């Protein structure tokens, strides 16, 4: 038997094992976590398309990532906000030590591990954004949008804040993606939803999750997967990784409890959908701060993330005409843009000197560490991410619509029918020729019905007759 090659001196097997584990946990957040969450949160007729949008984006981002996008985000500087694009699939290149040359950072694991770890963050950013487009975006437009947005928007944010760009060297703190991932996906989701246009009026008025248990299952995967999301960003199996994991869970639990409490106070009942939203805002808000704040800082951030986005979603979003006009299907703007910006601002206050040293951050800490200027840099970083995404998301949407001439929104017939019209597939099928549609229920008062496929076809509107589509019950 041939002997195993000697491990290089720079390799720390523990760090490598943890980094691969953390990356896999983040991947599970997208596939299947967000696929299940999205499929459960939408009516039956949109379950397949919603999950498939996430499934497609995961694959599309990976191919773009290894061909050119990784180096644009984490390679040698080309401009102050982006690196030189190029492939990472060259012979033996992936076996080298992982380094971020523009940030002067080296890790004790292979470059291949770093490429995969950073890929899953890029993928989940696009998939989170999809939550704003569910229930009406043309799937072909989505297929084009994903690689364009990754190229023109995500790589710039990642390089600027993490890869050694100008925000990195000015000390902007974004521990694990409050700006790069959540503020960008929330901003782009809101802007994209404006350009795509709204769902059908009936869908906007009655868009009830068809499976609360599926929704909760997806939410649970998302929560536990966040241990890798935040725990992997020290690039080592270090004490800081453990602190980040604990702070993440503490903040998330507090945020969920605060959101649920507000639901009870103002609406009279605890809501599972509300609890999931509070969970998400807690996860998002702690992300830029996870390893650089103390435990009490995580609790304060959790109180803020359970209340400020609640007000944004349930009061401001319903009273400001422009906010109400933009059809952000799952409230991605509130749960990601608002919570991400909030967390980024609060880390400017609560980042400790010891936490920043443990993370090897450029910043000496936040306002509590005597560095009040950090708040200003956090605001500046947020403004750059917002502005860049508003411009490029709009430009990409208009390019797809007017240059490529691909409609951004589905046809009225497709919007009426859903998955059967778009993919020729339904979420729940049993036996030959039988499609089971599970209508939204309120307290169990509506009865589930099953229909023979041929009989159901006769009920399809004339505009879509002859195509293999079935009306939603």
Automatic annotation (TrEMBL):
UniProt organism field: Polyplosphaeria fusca
Keywords: Ammonia transport, Membrane, Transmembrane, Transmembrane helix, Transport
Record-stated family: Belongs to the ammonia transporter channel (TC 1.A.11.2) family.
Membrane-traversing stretches: 20-39, 51-70, 115-134, 146-169, 175-195, 207-226, 246-266, 273-290, 296-316, 337-363, 375-400
Taxonomy of the source species: Eukaryota, Fungi, Dikarya, Ascomycota, Pezizomycotina
Top-level taxonomic group: Eukaryota
This protein's name: Ammonium transporter
SUPFAM superfamilies: Ammonium transporter
Compartments (UniProt record): Cell membrane; Membrane
Segments forming a coiled coil: none
Topology in membrane: Multi-pass membrane protein
Cellular component, GO annotation: plasma membrane
Gene Ontology MF: a single term: ammonium channel activity
Pfam families named among the record's database cross-references: Ammonium_transp
